[in-house]
Every structure is written in structure tokens, then in C-alpha cells.
Predict the structure.
Amino acid sequence: MTSIVDTSPLFDLRADITVAATVEQVYAVTSDLPRSAEWSPECRGGEWVAGAPGTVGAVFRGENLRPDTVVAWAPLVRGTWHTECRIVAAEPGRTFRWMMLSHAQADQESIWGFDTEPAADGCVLTHHFRMGRATAGIHAIVAELGEPVRIQFVQEWTAKLASDLAETLKRIKDVIETS
């Protein structure tokens, strides 16, 4: 029997919001990952550690914080931890995407991003996340869980991700429209 964590994609989510700003203005904010603490429910910012900031190939080291209440029953990393990602797309006014790296600096099929499209009243900002194959971290979380509980975890984590995408967009909209 194939486990739910062996399906691909494991996660594939997106959310949209209209922002009263140009695609260039929105891109300038969303591609500035050190500012992510202003809008992310989990990332508290970080720093560029390799490459020219915000360009394809650059590496960003993020600081993250997860409270005990997030999928409280699951064996997740809690408190503060760090991640690194590599920028895989940086097209001003159009798209900005980053791929999460393993602790060994290997690429993972875990990609976050923002896309912008002009609209009559500003632009449409799309925030998306796709995990093709489960990362080593996901495998570690579910390693000791039976299949029904793995399914429950994936369902609850999907709901958490969807909520985070929507919340991130609302916060970005507020940051841009009130500045």
C-alpha cells in the first residue's frame, strides 16, 4: 500500500488577493525576503547568505517560529528554527520563487512563491506553495505514525498552509496599501 506521503504532489496550494499597487511595487516588497516578518505567520525574517540578494541562485537563511498550538498533536519542530532556500525565479513585476534546501544544502521539491498580474484596480497577487515529493522533514514527522494518522496530518497541514497563504496575502496587502 502506498502511503499518502508518497503521493506527488503532496501539497499544491495557492491564494489570490487584489492589491492597490503596481506589479513593480508589489514585487519590490515580496522579493525582499528579510522583510517577511512583516507578513509571514511563521517566518521572522532572516538574511541573504550567498549571491546577490533577490536574484536567481541567491541563498536566504530564514528564522522561523512555530507555536505549540499548530497541529498540536503532531511531532513538529516547535519554537525557533532556521531554514535555507535558493531563489529559482526572479522576474521583476511577474514572479518570485524560492526552493527550500535540505540541511545538506540539497534542493527539495518544496517551492514557495509570489506571482503578480496587472488588474484594473492595481494587481492580483498570488501566493503559492508546492511540495512534489515529501521532504526529509515530512518523512521524519510521520515516520512513527500509522497511515490513518498520516492522512490526518496531511489534511491538517494542508489546512494550516491554506490559512497561512491567505493570512500572508492579507498582511502584504496591508503593508503595501498603508505605506
Summary: Helices lie at 23-30, 136-142, 147-177. The first helix runs from residue 23 to 30.
